[in-house]
Amino acid sequence: MLLDQLSAISYQLSAISYQLSAISYQLSAISYQLSVISHQPMRYAHATRTAISLCATRTLREQLSAIS
């Protein structure tokens, strides 16, 4: 009887361990997604700064060649 109870408890603990592992995996996936989302604005800001810089450089070059 005691052995049966211990076996049942062991089975329940194993099931809980499996569920906790699944939850941990899901939290890792969510954490990764949040990390990707948080970096997107910085990426867009960098692309915008680069585009503005390239346009400004081209405009400056055009102005210099018009003067020459």
Describe the structure in brief.
The protein is an all-alpha fold. 97% of the residues lie in helices and 0% in strands.
Structure characterization notes:
This protein is an all-alpha fold. It has a domain of 30 residues. It contains 1 helix and no strands. The model has no long low-confidence stretch (mean pLDDT 82).
Topology summary:
Elements: H1 2-67
Please describe the structure with a list of short key phrases separated by commas or semicolons.
68 residues; mainly alpha; rod-shaped
Percentage beta strand: under 5%
Low-confidence stretches: none
Span between termini: 100 Å
Largest sheet at a glance?
none
Pairing-aware structural class of the strands and helices? mainly alpha
